[in-house]
Specification:
The chain has 13 helices and 10 strands. By secondary structure, the protein is of the alpha/beta class. The protein has 2 domains: 218 residues, Rossmann fold; 96 residues, 3-Layer(aba) Sandwich (Rossmann fold). The strands form 2 sheets. It has a 6-stranded mixed sheet, with helices on both faces. Strand 3, helix 5 and strand 4 form a beta-alpha-beta unit. The longest helix is centred in the middle third of the chain and has 17 residues.
Length: 328
């Protein structure tokens, strides 16, 4: 079960960091003089692509799994995910020695399915009416699995424990780079961006926080501007980690504390991803490339600023790189 909503605070993020620190990497912050010169700014990249399981989501996963009582943990955990959270929960559960049940879409990238299996997760395929399951279809599969196994439900983003764990990324980032004045993070369901808001605005209220998402999955921007959650109905983006709708916990935090949400094209996502591969010599996935794509498209004023970018993950389907195929 979720902790009380009052736990959504900088103090809660600090507690989560103390809990998960022995199990995660304090990922490095990299810079590139070539990219600084190209965009006329100072860019700092928090490399969650080098995190365990290749993604920031191990932070929330470990916080959720380690927060369970022994009695709760004995039944295992159940969650839903297209891949990254699935692998993260599988790893965290294996570390604690408990089963993990993962509701996944049949369209999940093969590399991410393989990662779940590598970490010992038990995959349950979501039966969907369309190509990509809806939130209701994911939730139904999770509910059925919970009823059968009594496993504790861990929502991939709309969960206090998950949000606090994700906030530890920005906590480390600003401890290591306190001079950052603008912080960019991708947004799908909002777990990372809402956790980032708690940590970043708590540590440095003056910081400018911008969420970045694909134009082909722009429910967060629509929701931000409308003042209410606009569901994600038919996302068609190569950024498979950003295809989900905001939740009733993540949305209020984002609406209150993010300074804006911007969108980028599929072409720019692929170009930003390739640019990081070529210039920085590190592998990032499409979802992790979205914030840099926003810089490339001049969606954000960055001239003369010190800009932090969270590279959220590096799990890529090597058989389907975006610059090899135009299909999302």
């Amino acid at each position: 079960m979720n902790e009380p909503s009052r736990a959504l605070s900088l103090a809660g993020v600090r507690e989560a960091h103390a809990r998960i620190a022995p199990h995660i990497k304090r990922t490095p912050v990299l810079t590139s003089s070539a990219l600084d010169a190209e965009f006329g700014t100072r860019l700092f990249f928090k490399c969650e692509n080098l995190q365990r399981a290749g993604v920031f989501k191990v932070r929330g996963a470990f916080n959720a799994v380690l927060s369970l009582s022994d009695e709760e943990a004995a039944h295992g955990v159940v969650t839903s995910s297209s891949g990254n959270h699935a692998a993260a929960i599988s790893l965290a559960a294996r570390t604690r020695g408990i089963p993990a049940y993962i509701a996944m879409p049949k369209v999940a990238p093969r590399s991410k399915v393989a990662a779940v299996r590598r970490y010992g997760g038990n995959i349950i395929w979501v039966q969907a009416r369309g190509t990509v399951p809806t939130s209701e279809e994911y939730d139904s599969t999770v509910a059925e699995t919970h009823a059968r196994t009594q496993a504790s439900v861990v929502h991939p983003y709309n969960d206090v424990r998950t949000i606090l764990g994700q906030g530890t990324c920005a906590l480390e980032f600003l401890e290591d780079c306190p001079g950052i004045d603008t912080l960019l993070a991708p947004v799908g369901g909002g777990g990372l961006l809402s956790g980032t808001a708690l940590a970043a605005k708590g540590l440095k209220p003056s910081i400018r926080l911008i969420g970045c998402e694909p134009a082909m999955a722009d429910d967060a921007q629509q929701s931000y501007r409308a003042g209410k959650i606009v569901p994600q109905l038919d996302p068609r983006t190569i950024a498979d980690g950003l295809r989900t709708s905001l939740g009733d916990l993540t949305f209020p935090l984002i609406r209150q504390q993010a300074d804006d949400i911007v969108t980028v094209s599929e072409e720019s996502i692929a170009s930003a991803m390739r640019l990081v591969w070529e210039v920085m010599k590190i592998i990032i996935e499409p979802s992790g490339a979205v914030p840099l794509a926003a810089v490339m498209e001049r969606r954000i004023a960055v001239q003369g600023r010190r800009v932090g970018i969270i590279l959220s993950g590096g799990n890529v389907d090597l058989d389907r790189l975006p610059w090899q195929s135009a299909a999302p």
